[in-house]
Write a structure and sequence with these properties.
The protein is of the alpha/beta class. Helices cover 29% and strands 24% of the residues. It has two helices and four strands, in the order βαβββα. A four-stranded parallel sheet has the order 3-2-1-4, with helices on one face. α1 links the parallel β1 and β2. It is globular. The chain starts with a strand and ends with a helix.
Length: 78
């Protein structure tokens, strides 16, 4: 099973991927990152990536361009 964090999880594409993951037993979304947590997800959503302490195999980024710098900084200092 692949554990995934979705960066930009509450956007259109992030929500599509969340829905597809529910139908695929080989994918597990363990957390989401988004500036807004609307409470509609089956996984914890963090409004700041620095608060996310969940381990994952991969991060998929569907955020806006200005949010990418923070994501890069997070992994550069990880």
């Amino acid at each position: 099973m692949i554990n995934i964090i979705i960066h930009g999880c509450n956007g259109k594409v992030g929500q599509v991927i969340s829905g597809l993951a529910k139908e695929d037993d080989s994918i597990n979304i363990v957390a989401g990152i988004d500036v807004v947590d609307n409470g509609n997800n089956d996984y914890p959503v963090y409004t700041n990536i620095d608060e996310c302490d969940v381990e994952a195999d991969v991060v998929i980024d569907f955020s806006i361009a200005k949010a990418v710098d923070k994501l890069i900084d997070f992994f550069f200092f990880f």
